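target protein:
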Amino acid sequence: MVKFYAIALALGVIGLIVVILGGTLAENVGREDRDPGRRIGPSGRAAIGGLVGFGMAGLSAEFSTLDLDWPAALGVAVVGAAVGSLWVWYSSREQDSDAGPV
């Protein structure tokens, strides 16, 4: 399961980097319509947050000193994914309401 968590974390971090750098580039060249954060919408941003949360929580549970079994670590990872998705949704809920640049 460690490899699964690591792959999820890597994909989430890559998605996060693409959204941040793509948004920066789109704003600097004056083409906000090409911003990946706006193009994927709130559900896409929440999916990236869920991947990062799942990977981080899963790896943390697998390598914890509590010596958790894999079902418990998977449960912790699912909770981490939910918290990551909810946090991204909460922090970007007003971003889609205005039409101008953020």
